Amino acid sequence: MENRYFLDRFKVTVPQLDSLIGTALAHGGDYADLYFEHTAYNDLLLKDNEVASGGFHIDSGVGIRVLKGDKTGYAYSESTEMPDMTCAAKAAAQIAMAGGLPADYRHAVSTGLPAPDLYPAARNWKDCPASGFIPVLKKLESIIYSKEPKVVKVIAKLSWSESEILMYNSSGELACDFRPMGSIVASVIFSWNGKNENKTASRSFRMGAEMITDRLMDEIAEEAVAGIDDRFRAIRPKGGKMPVVMGAGASGILLHEAMGHSFEADFNRKGQSIFSGMTGKKICDSSISIVDDGTIRYNRGSCNYDDEGIRGQKTYMVKDGILVSYLHDRISARFYGLQPTGNGRRESFRFNPIPRMRATYMENGNALKSDLIASVKKGIYVDEFSNGQVKIGEGDFTFYVKSGCLIENGRLTAPVKDLNIIGNGPRTLADIVGVGNDLAIDNGTWTCGKDQSVPVSCGIPSVLVKSLTVGGN
Amino acid sequence: MERNITGLISESEKELAEYCMESALGHGAAQVRISLSKSILDSVGMLNGEVDKVAHSADRSVFLYVFADGRYGTFSTNRLDKAELARFAANAVDTVKMLAEDPFRQLPDPARTEKGAVTGRELGLYDSSYEYMTAGKRMEIARDECISGKTGDGKDYRIISEECEYSDSTDDNLVLDSSGFYGRHTETSFAVCSEITIEDKGGRKYSGYWWDSSPFIDGLDRMACSEAALDRAIRQMNPRNRKGGKYRMVVDASVSSRLVSPVISALNAASIQQESSFLKDSLGKRIFGDGLSIIDCARTPGKPGARLFDTEGVATRDCEVIRGGAVKMYFTNTYIARKMGMEPTVEGVSRPVLVPFSCKKGCGEDSGVQFNAGRIMKECGSGIYVTGFNGGNCNQTTGDFSYGIEGFAFRDGQILHPVREMVITGNMVGLWNSLLFAGNDARPCTRWQIPSLCFDEVDFSS
């Protein structure tokens, strides 16, 4: 879409944007930016065999940020009328009244290049009547029931949104983005011998309505019922320290929690991260490279531009075992004298951007998954997760395992479930002793909640960590 | 009835809400509920004693709940232009009409809705001194909170960073429905928080976090926040590994609600109806140990979480949720009640209060003295004192849980050393059947009034 479209959408002109920037910088701010957003979100929910609830939600406004040195003034307006936006600009401008040394925020961003187009929508969601998606959910439910007799309840939700974004800053840079997102989640309750169990499967893409295909429904249904017999038989193992083989795909949560957050440059700039001051140092085996990538086509974490108007990029955090880059927004990039890496992201116009991950994954190694498992005498294999957390300073992280298996004498044996695993980021990186050749990106509805919620994804090949603490009896 | 509107929501905005409701009804809705919310939040963040971030936000939203042709949908917008609202309401009704029929959806019986929430200030949760807050005062409070002058020189640690924030906010919510319900709730909130990272001489980092909040500026304990955060960081220095096994577990009042929330969630009738609750078929039955009693004190004036009506407009009441381990109620909204043929209650908990308990007669729980984590540790001898949770989850369908913890080993009531990388694992029903003590030290600033707790024979992995 042309920039003209976005200016019209928010009923503003470039001279008006310049006027707002002028107001925002009136007290001596070094840099100011405007972030206009209009998001239309829709959902449909299937429950008790019917799509009997749904709705739409409209959120629109402009966020105005002023930087003075490393300090931030932020305010927003839900109206894009000039008087309301001017009030917000004046509120954000106050930060400069606290004083401080001037700073240069003129980053050498890649203006003049053609706009990236990582998620072209073949069928815009807004052009598709919601009623057309009701059979989709019914079909998904029907496939799930057909695959597994233990299913007693299916809740299926289809949600979609389209965000129109316009960004403008005091360097005169204008960037616009149209961001579609579609997500399907199936939560299934199973019953067997008087016991209930649950499983959830999801897919989410920055795509238009063309993402809805029979193949996708079948894939979600298959994942939603896979391994349910094991889930009913699963045990709580004896807890303690043990080797853990992380299955390809969703195990990428290990990278997100154990390393990714600690590589976010705001924590490092403030000296809070366990990885502070370690760029250029070897932190793990040279077979390991870890990437945060905003350029994967249709990926949930991808951005044509980040929320500071910086083009989407692929950023190596660890290359051949060496910590080569943190994840930067404009503030941290200026602090370190570097270029931003396109990681300045935000939940909505209500929030100021901060360094956030996009799609975080480890590149392939050479090992076979079967060899990694075979090398473990006593440990566990894990492949399905729900949530995780990290303590940035200490580097202690956890993630919650929904399902996996014991490994005994190199073979997968009894299924396990509902375990928390805990470790320490740098130590765990150093303890990765085998990297598989089966990298998979997990396309579930991963959302990162560092103060604000943003869509992300993660991936990893199968890896063997020689020691992690596993919860158990 | 006099409806004195003196909050964030103006008379003209109230009329807009009514107009939106009438538009939906005029377009074919049978029943409508509308919720108009406005809020303002200001915050000042400090980094190492200097102002780091100043933020101001003003939010507004209209939520529209439409019941049309036996169908139901939920819609929202933050665009309050009159013409746009009319289109919004019409589109909402059209959208609802394409959904499947659901005969159980309807507004609550008017006899059950609250009649006394007229000004929004009936519960005394609004502090008028909020109106006199200025940017300068906020800055002053935030600066007062900082302790960055204390560098730790001469000590066995140094402060790496101190982040603290002061914020205040006011919220105004007006709910109307087409059956005549009118309810308003207004409150203020003042909060401080602080996170301090320190480094020991070996280069290891430790962080401590503390916070306080109150509906009233005078109720805010703002000066002690960074001190508490620093103390929590220092206390974590030099952790040792503790062998896994079964230990008595004392959980500090600042984090104990983490173990209560899965129980409250499982009492939601929507989860029961979907067979995704481990407390299915438990109503009226003794499921937990007789030491567990939880009361919902929804209508206590001036206390965080108090409210006169729930999101449906149904009048809250003070009621027993669990008494002596027996489940006394499910949280059942109008829809689920009709669907399951049950009596409706309220759609969720407001201000749960866990009643003090001691497995030793005459010890602590009703003696009028402070019965806190320290006292509980003395009573129960040795074990692990949990002061924080690091990740983890509870499977709501089975009640199985596994959480990372941080805290301290203690013996004979005395703290020995910090522990790290430990995980507790178990089942919620089993855990709450092993309750030995519940203190009387719930933090006044929290909506969930959960004191320090002690459980027997908890599985720790390390």
List the uncertain runs of chain B.
none
Largest sheet of chain B: 6 strands, antiparallel
Outline type of chain A: globular
| Terminal residue distance of chain A | 57 Å
Number of strands of chain A: 22
| Count of DSSP H/I helices of chain B | 9
CATH topology of the largest domain in chain B: PmbA/TldD fold
Mean of residue pLDDT of chain A? 94
| Class based on secondary structure composition and strand pairing of chain A | alpha+beta
Please give a structural write-up.
The complex is a heterodimer of chains A (473) and B (462). Chain A has 473 residues and is an alpha+beta fold. Among the domains of chain A are: 125-164 and 178-233, Double Stranded RNA Binding Domain (2-Layer Sandwich), CATH 3.30.160; 240-471, no CATH class. Chain A has 11 helices and 22 strands. Chain A has helices spanning 3-9, 14-24, 82-93, 134-147, 214-225, 228-233, 253-263, 265-269, 330-336, 369-374, 425-430, and strands at 31-47, 50-68, 71-77, 151-169, 174-192, 195-205, 240-246, 290-293, 314-319, 322-323, 344-345, 354-355, 359-362, 378-390, 396-408, 411-424, 432-435, 440-442, 447-448, 454-455, 457-460, 463-470. In chain A, strands 3-2-1-4-5-6 form a 6-stranded antiparallel β-sheet. In chain A, strand 4 (151-169) and strand 5 form a beta hairpin. In chain A, helix 2 (14-24) runs parallel beside helix 3 (82-93) and helix 4 (134-147) packs across helix 5 (214-225). Chain B is 19% helix and 36% strand. Chain B has helices at residues 11-26, 82-97, 135-145, 225-235, 257-266, 269-273, 334-340, 373-380, 428-432; strands at residues 31-47, 50-68, 71-77, 157-177, 182-200, 205-214, 245-251, 294-296, 319-323, 326-327, 352-354, 357-358, 383-394, 400-411, 414-427, 435-438, 453-461. In chain B, helix 1 (11-26) packs parallel to helix 2. Chains A and B meet through strand 2, strand 3, helix 3, strand 4 and strand 5 of A and strand 2, strand 3, helix 2, strand 4 and strand 6 of B.
